[in-house]
Amino acid sequence: GPCTECSCSSGKEIGKDTSTTKKKENGDQLFIPKIFFGTRTHKQISQITRELKRTVYSGVPMTILSSRDYTCIHPVVSSSSSNRNEMCVELLEGKHGKSCLYYHGVHKLSEHHALQSAHRLCQAWDIEDLVSLGKKLRACAYFAARELMVRADIVFCPYNYLLDPQIRESMEINLKGQVVILDEAHNIEDCARESVSYGVTESQLRAAREELDFMVNNNIRQKDHEPLRAVCYSLT
Asked: Which residue windows are transmembrane per the record (predicted)?
């Protein structure tokens, strides 16, 4: 029935000329914002989803965005101690003549969740649940979680997925018009500082300086490389 807590119960309408009202009048689908729920750690996401499971909203479409360190199920990449992101990209691009069969099975995971949603069998899940299902279906949990974001009403993720512009762009996160909830928001300052900071060792600086020396001395885009070389020299 109609709600009794706001102006709509008295027949008044606020903001008739808003874009959502116009969309409704034109017969387009009404825009419903997503809830982006940011936490400090992945462990806290587990706690939040566990609490969600205990509520009447347990069946709401959701997803959890996390790194490959938590979601990759490829036996070689997931067991590697080197950069898993780079190894994953190399597999996707088929650089060494090999591809990732788990990536090609992503649709199995998304279809599984779509089927559960259609039969009202959806329940709040955790990263471990998705990874376990991914291993069973031989489907990539990392890319499946990203696909599920399209239909999700709630998106759980660490702070930096919302604060770091590069991560937002790579994960195709658009926060315009959405609802953003930040758990333990007093930690935001540190996270924001980390998002615009970069660590580099002295040996890396010296190696970069040598490469820039070579390019400048060989007239390779001197105007671009000379300022960079000057920065390396000043820092070392």
From this structure: none
